[in-house]
Each structure stands twice: as C-alpha cells, then as structure tokens.
Amino acid sequence: MSETVRDVWEIVRFGRRQGAFELGSEDGLTALIFGMSLEVDGRTLSLQDASEMTGDVDLKPGQNSEVSFDFAEPAISCRAQVSLSNDAETVLLSAEITNKGANVVALGRCCLVNAATAHDGLIALDDDGSAVFLQASASTGLSRVYAVGDAEADKRSNVFLHIASNSTGKALHLGFVTLDRMGTYHEFDYDPASGPGEIEGGFTELRAVCDLYDYPLAPGASMELETLMIESRADLHGSLHNWADRVAEHYKPAIWPKIPGGWLGWAWVDCFNVELYEDVIMRNAEAVRRRLGGFDIEYIWESLGNLPGGCPGAWLGWNEACFPRGHQWLVDRLAELDFKLGLWLGPFYVADSMKELVEEMDNALLKKNGELALASRAWRFGEAGQLPHDQRPNMYALDPTHPQGEEFLRHVFSTYRDWGIRYYMLDFLGAVSRTEHYNQHHDPAIVRGIPIMRKGLEIIAEAAQPDTYTLSSSGPTFTCVGDIVAARMGNDYGEGRPLDAETYHYPGTFLINKSGAVTSHFHASTNMAAAYFTHRKLFINDTGNVMTVDQPLPLSDAQIVTTIFGINGGPVMLGDDIDRISEERLALIKKVFPRHPQIAEPVDLFDSPAPDYPKVFHVRIEGGWDTWHVVAVLNYAEQTLTEDIPLERLGMSRDDEYLLWEFWDQRYHGKVSGELKAVVPPGSARIYRLTARREHPWVLSTDMHVLQGNFELAEVAWDPQTMTLSGTANRPNGETGSLFVSVPEGLYVVNPQGLWIGKDDNDKTLVIRRAFTFGDEPEGWEIQFAPIMTDDRSEYGLR
C-alpha cells in the first residue's frame, strides 16, 4: 500500500538527566522514551546504574552518534550507537558490550529497548485503544494479528514487533535487521484501563531483547548485539517491507531464479504399507510427464523411505525394502524423465538407537549438564512407529560447531551430491535452534541457539553447492536468511500420512472437511499473510507446501487449495497420485502453472485480528499488453461472507470504472467503481479479476490460469481501424481452454463462427467465449466487430 502521509522522527536524542533515549514523531502521535538493560551474571543493570557516561545523541537526518556507559560492578562497558536515516524515517540502534574485568561474565537478556511507564518511560501510539500487533513466530508456528488489548494473546513477538493503528493510519515497528549472533524477540504489556497522558489504555512495558543465554564473555572480549530498526510510518504495511529490505541488504541472499514445481505424493497413496515406494515414484514420475507434459515440474521429493528403518542419522544407508534397485538406479531413471531427486532430512538428528554412531560422535553431540541432550523423544516414523512407545528411539542433536560434527555434515551432503541429489527439505531445525534442549556445545565463541543452527546450514549449503535447492522446514524462518533457498512458512499444508496407527490421520491418509486442521487451509493462508513481505527478498516463501486437490476432498476445498497456490508466488509440490487423479481435479493443478513469482498482499491483514483471519488478497498483474487486478477472497466460515472492498485499498482509482469477472463461477459481474462487493459462499474461495473498462472490446478473463491471462495470453491488441481484437494464446500441446471477451453495447461480431456469444441482460455487454485446443505452436486469434446500424437481424451477421 502506498503512503498517504509522510511520517518522520523529529526527535532522536539521549537525555542525560533521565538516562534514557527519546524518540518523537513529527506529527506528535508516536513517542518512545526508553532505557536499555543488560543482564550480567544474573543481575539486571539499567543505564542509571552506570558509573560513568560519555558521548551524546541529538540527531538530525543523516547523522549518527554514540554514547558509552561504564559499570563498576561487574566491570563492563556498553557502547550504544544510534543513527537517523537521511529521510528521517528510520532509527537504527545497536550496542557493543565489553568485559573490562579480570573474570568471565555471563551475558543473558540484553534489551536495546526497555521501557516501562512505571520507570519514567513512555510508550505512546495515540490510538483509541483499537491498535493491533502482528505477532511473528519467526518459525513455521502460527503467526497472526491480535488486538493489543487481547488478554489471551501472548505479548511476545520474535525478531520484529509491528503495531498498527487503523484509527490513526500509523504503524510502530521495531525489528532486528541482523539475525545471526543471538536470539531476538520483543515483549510488551498493554493495559486497556490506564495509559500515558489522557489516553485511556496504553502500552505499559516494551522490550526489544537480544538473548545470549548466559554467554561467557571473556576478559577483554566484546560482544556486538544485533541491530534494531525503529520506525513510525503513516503506512500500516510500509515498515514490514522496509525491514525485509534492510535484512536483505545486510545478508545479500542469492534469490533462486525460478519458482519450482515437484511431486511428493503421500495424500492418497501409502508408500510404506500398501505399495512399494519405488513403484509409486516411478508410476507417478511417468504420469507427470504423460498427463502434465509441458508443465514445469522438475523435482521428485522422496521422504523417509530411503532411510533404513526410517531412522534419522542413517543418512547414507539405503532402504532396500522400499527401493530394491538402489539409489543410483532411482536417480538415473528419474534423470531420464528429466527429474531431479530430492530427499527429506532432519540434518541435526541422530537416533539413540544407532549406538555405534552415537558412541563415535559422542563429543560432537550437544550436551545438557554433561549428558547427551535430548532434542526429541519417541520417534514415531518408519519402523519405530510399530514399536511400543517406551522402546522407540529418542533423538540426540549434532553439534555443527565441533570439527567432527562439521565433517559429518560435509560428508553426508557431499556424498549426496555425488549421488545426484539436488533438492533437500531440511526438517526439525529446532534440534539446535531451541536453547532449552541443551546448554553445552563445542565452540564457546558462538552463542547457542540460532548461531549454531546457522553454522550447520552454512556447512550444508557449501557441501550441497549453489545449484541445489534447500528448503528449511519446521523451525526458524527469518533467521535462516542467506543459508537456504526457501523457507517453509507454515504447517504441513496438504500433506498425507501412511496408514500407521500413530498418525493423526489414521485410519485415513488425508484430512478433509476442516479448514483449521493441522494440514488444512487456515494455517497456510494466515502465515502467508503474516510473512508475505519477505518473499523473494530473504528467500522464497514456501507458504503452500503440498498441493492436494483430488477427491474425496470437496470441490470447494480443492478450489481453495488452488487459489492459495495460485496467489502465493511459491513452490508447488504435488500431493496427489497423478497416475490416478481424475481429469477434473488434474485441471485444477494446471491452473497454477506456470508459477508466478509475485505473492499476493493481504489487504485486510490489520483489519482482522484473532480470532478472525486475513481473507482478502490482492495481486496487481502487469503483463506486456495490459494491467489488471486479481483479488482472492477466502471464506472458512459456515456462513456466506459479504465483503465490501474499497478499490482505493487495491491501488485503484475509486472514480474509474472496471469490468468484474469471477474465476471459479466463470461469471461476468458487470461494471464496478468505488468498491468491489465480494460474496463468498461458506467454505469457499472467489477470485475476482478487475480490468479497466474500455470503449472497445477487451479481455475479461481466461479459465486456464488463476491469474487469468498473464501466461496464456502472450499478446493482445485492439485495432480501431479494422475494429479487430486479436492476440496469441499458448498452453502445452494437447491442452484446452477458453478466453472470455467483453464487448460494449452497440457492437456486433462480424465473424461469429466458432464463438459462444452471450448478452448480459443487465448492462447489455456481450460476453464472448473463444475456445482453444493447443498444438505445438502458439495459436493466433482475432475477433472482428462492427457497429450496430439497425434493428434488422441481417445486419448482425446472423443470417
């Protein structure tokens, strides 16, 4: 969304008398007065505890300065650096802690911002109490918007905290723009009954935390905290984009050049209990080339079946029961079909049942109080799922900071590369990122948690090499920036499970008929909305995971799945049995290929706090021959949803007139201006296409792709001299589809042969369907028109 009012920081200074930083916006609506705090050897030190302060901060745009604080006991110093951007919109705050004493000190929670109204601090967003905040899990866990006064909401947000006020049209953003040295999160308290000044209700505490988890800082050594960005903008979405841009500028991640497609299966086929995994893969690989020929599907993702017994740690073993002809036969056979093989790994897991490996790697496994640390209990996948619960293996975690742990990872992924593996889904990253699992690792210079995970991912990336697609799965997201190609942003959307009694799906293989189910729509679309601004800036956002659309999934749910994949800009892994899927449902898969890299913006992100959810998503399509708007509206409720969407919120003029088409119902809805009125049945999706109304015939839509014309219509042109609308259409050989054209009142079709011509009996617009059956080459088309001169039917060319 574009900014309506420019907002800047007018005051950026450090008040020596109160020992606090002060930020104030130009319009006076946002003010922050805050101190800093350091947790050292279990004690919390505030700036007022400093024995000496030097330096000053009173910034003009484009300036930076610093102030230092020396503490007597323990003997440490803290040097804070503050800068104000040239446009006066962004404050950057960082700090460096130095141990000036003779003994090691333990650093814990260090707060770059620590404000509380009870301690002469002030946190004010001049709001009527209706402000909301985007709670970022910074993981595959649920991220969503809550009201700040929601008593049930956890007032903690990882990496960034984004507070938005619809009543003022402003947002306050605090976000860490470096993410590799320690864990970062934000905490706040909000009291709806009392607040600063005359505001009824307000923020009573606010902390931006760098957590070092008792990091041992040696005498003379220094530790630089992460850098914090603080903005107050008259644009509810602007700082989210700006935060992602700054993170990307710092890490300069290489963005994968295309959005990939592949096949996983699992939804309707049990590769472990019903069919041989090797047969299922080959049957579906051949079916993809036969039934989806010409669509860009390049990976086959095999999951768990390659591991002997399905046991993590045995990465270079091979399960001959599932794949009797071996890994090289599989890789080579898939290559003949132009596929690359991909594997699932929990790269830091080592099962305790692998006793020889555990004994060999003992020093390279994470510890807790001197004992091997348990990252997960009772592994329930593969053969372990058939064992009594107390006999199932537990998982230890590899320490990638240990030379032996590093060598283990390098050997595994270098060997896989030699095999020909070019895709990895890297799962259970919490084994090393979650600090509660362990408190001892090999390299004391690295803070435990996120930095250790990043160390491991860097080793994997180097061994796998840049032409290999690496996808992070359960665990952190934003903090993987620069070390992976793509990040799963949500739960196991669209995934099935084998017919094992331990699965939630049992005795089925796939969950249906509940949008809030663990593998269903709600989690996927909500997290897509909560992280859309990072897509193709930090990495590729994998907000869909697996696309499953076949029966007995209801058609309305299959359309929701197709809608989400059509607008999310991310990868598609197919979950259906492509060999057996019906033609009707196979056609839905085709509507999301080719992949469009642009992700939809959640228009109502800050209008729908929990328990509500974002429902309206917008994509502006700029083709070579036109610009139009695609608006998807999701309804997971049991009642019909009616949503009035102002066109201004879509970046469109409220004074202009647009033609409206709905994709799933294939219905022309006439001319609209000012707002779009969406009506969505229970448990359904609607996709609207809006194009500027012309005084001549023009494209309304197609039925071939969710984005309706961006790929399948290479060019479209109107010739006013000959009154001809023409263009070129293109889909893979053997595919069919339809183009829909609107014709203003007063014209008729000169060449009606092979066309379906309908007349809307509301606004008298003609709606024409032109059908295609595609061959090897793009197909040209043209429709010629003439003005109606008389009521005589012979003048219509309808003899």
Protein model, in words:
It is a single chain. The protein has 799 residues and is an alpha+beta fold. It has 4 domains: 9-251, Beta-galactosidase, Chain A, domain 5; 261-347 and 406-430 and 446-590, Aldolase class I (TIM Barrel); 615-693, Golgi alpha-mannosidase II (Immunoglobulin-like); 702-799, Immunoglobulin-like. The protein has 10 helices and 49 strands. Strands 5, 6, 7, 8, 11, 12, 14, 15, 18 and 19 form a 10-stranded antiparallel sheet that branches. Helix 5 (403-419) runs parallel beside helix 7 (450-464). The longest helix has 17 residues, at 403-419. The two termini are 52 Å apart. The relative contact order is 0.08. Residues 195-199 and 795-799 have low confidence and may be disordered.
The gist of it:
The chain is of the alpha+beta class. The strands form 9 sheets. Strands 5, 6, 7, 8, 11, 12, 14, 15, 18 and 19 form a 10-stranded antiparallel sheet that branches. Strands 1, 2, 3, 4, 9, 10, 13, 16 and 17 form a 9-stranded antiparallel sheet that branches. Strands 31-30-29-28-22-21-20-33-32 form a 9-stranded parallel sheet.
